[in-house]
Amino acid sequence: MKKCTAFLLSMILLIAFPISAFAESGMITSGYTEDGIYYEVYGEQPSIQPLATGGTYVVREVIFDGKVTPERELFWQEAIGYVPTEGTLYLTSYLYNRKENKTYATYEGYLHRPQ
Q1: Helices H, strands E: what count in the chain?
Q2: Distance, CA of 71 to CA of 80 (rounded, Å)
Q3: Cβ–Cβ < 8 Å for 81, 106
Q4: I want to staple 64 with a disulfide (CB 3.0 to 4.6 A). Which of 49, 68, 73, 84 is the partner?
Q5: Of the candidates 46, 58, 64, which has an alpha carbon nearest to the alpha carbon of residue 105?
Q6: Could you list the pLDDT tens digit for every one of the 115 residues in the chain?
Q7: Contact 94, 104 (CB under 8 A)
Q8: What 3-state class would DSSP assign to 66?
Q9: CB half-sphere exposure, 114, CA atoms < 13 A
Q10: Are 110 and 87 in contact (CB under 8 A)?
Q11: What is the reported pTM?
């Protein structure tokens, strides 16, 4: 029962606030997958330099056009404070919004300086 209630609450929040949470964090990049599906990536830029901690924890929100089953993990490269970083991000959740015909996916993981 708790899982059902949590799922319904998530659905209501996503329908009521479909992109506002993503847009507030700022767009990082956009592009097309190898299959030609348009996507946008949102997230906050960490204030901690990757060198200071050995790695920087990030959360990236990805919006895909259409109904998509996101990859479970993805290799990600990004400059944080002009410092190139990379790492594997892992899918933590995703949801398809039929009304907008978009898939919202959340990835989390650590980025570090390339070796």
Answers
A1: 3, 6
A2: 24
A3: no
A4: 68
A5: 64
A6: 544 444 433 444 444 344 444 445 688 889 998 888 898 899 887 765 555 556 888 999 999 999 999 999 999 998 887 888 899 999 999 999 999 999 999 999 999 888 7
A7: yes
A8: coil
A9: 9
A10: yes
A11: 0.72
